[in-house]
Amino acid sequence: MALLGNLRHRPARRLSQLYAGLVLYGISMALMVRSGLGLDPWDVLHQGLSERTGLSFGTVTIAVGALVLLLWIPLRQRPGLGTVSNVVVIGLVVDATLALLPDGGPLGVRIALLIVGIVANGAATGLYLGAQLGPGPRDGLMTGFVARRPGWSIRLVRTVIEVTVLALGWLLGGTVGVGTVAYALAIGPLAHLFIPVFAVPAADTGTATPDAAPDVAPAG
């Protein structure tokens, strides 16, 4: 029952918004990959692991998401439907999009892919978090650490995790570049813009109360 969260309240909107957001998130990741200008920290790790193992980008994304979700157990975090869907759907969509989308080509096209990818990622974050059916596994990892260590700020935990992930991904061969910096600067304001827009009003008060702020990671 915990997995379903608030699904009884506006189920059609929540489900459609959740899966629209996850699909858009996967597409946005593929756009940034094809730009070749740099990825967000978790995707740098995914790309590095993909290159080292020979597995597809999406397969690695699913595998890493599943491993991160296992870390929720000692942190006593409870996944929602959106959490489990995040692990599977994004990886499948990013692989399908990469199969259809050619490399960016000229620099102008690659810059356009990067910009569209970052903006789409922010909108996707607002969609799936606004559905209030559970955060992504990486989001829950951060909030879980903060819950177990009240003296730690989510900003500190997020920074430590993402710097570690970024460094590991770079060492494995993931792409770090201007896109990585652009994403870091833009995703916070974009999420701040889109999350209230797509937040589903709570059943009792009519106010929107989305889940905790994302790692944006989505990541997810």
How is the main sheet built? none
* Helix and strand element order: HHHHHHHHH
Intertermini distance: 22 Å
SS-based class: mainly alpha
What integer value in Å does the Rg equal? 16 Å
DSSP summary: helix tally:
9
Mean pLDDT: 85
As a percent range, the share of strand residues is under 5%
- What percent of residues adopt helix (DSSP H or I)? 55-70%
Q: Stretches where pLDDT falls below 50 for ≥5 residues?
A: 209-219
Please tell me the total number of domains. Answer: 1
Tertiary shape = globular
The total beta strand count reads 0
Write structural notes for this entry:
The protein has one domain. 69% of the residues lie in helices and 0% in strands. With 220 residues, the chain is mostly helical. It is built from 9 helices and no strands. Helix 1 packs antiparallel against helix 6 (107-130). Residues 209-219 have low confidence and may be disordered. The protein is globular. The chain has helices spanning 11-35, 41-53, 57-70, 72-75, 81-100, 107-130, 137-148, 154-172, 178-198.
